[in-house]
Write a structure and sequence with these properties.
Structural class: mainly alpha
Number of domains: 2
Shape: rod-shaped
Largest sheet: 2 strands, antiparallel
Number of helices: 2
Radius of gyration: 37 Å
Strand content: 5-15%
Order of helices and strands: EEHH
Amino acid sequence: MDKIRVKLHIGGIDYYINTDETLEYTVALGEKIDRRMTEILRSNSLITVNQAAVLTALEIADECEKANSAVDNFRKQITEYLDEATKAKNERDYYKRELERYKTEVSFKNDQINLFAGSKNKKDDEQK
């Protein structure tokens, strides 16, 4: 992507920046920063533009850190959920194999019972 040159008006000063981002995105960021700085400047008439810029940067850095922390927590939770799901899948597979083994065993035992019952009935018929 080619760099574009964007004019931003923040805190009463024009800034020209080169960016890889879209014009709309960059302008929206500039407007967000300008609004925050304006709010800070309006809240205290003794604050300079430079101080407002630093306070704005601190607020945004704080938000960024908190958002990154939340993302890290979500990643950790997702990893735990995936581990639990994998464990549950492995248990399910184990029990499916056990069920098949028991089915085979029951079928074998039924065949033996039927064979035994069939030979007993045959002997009973021969004795009559």
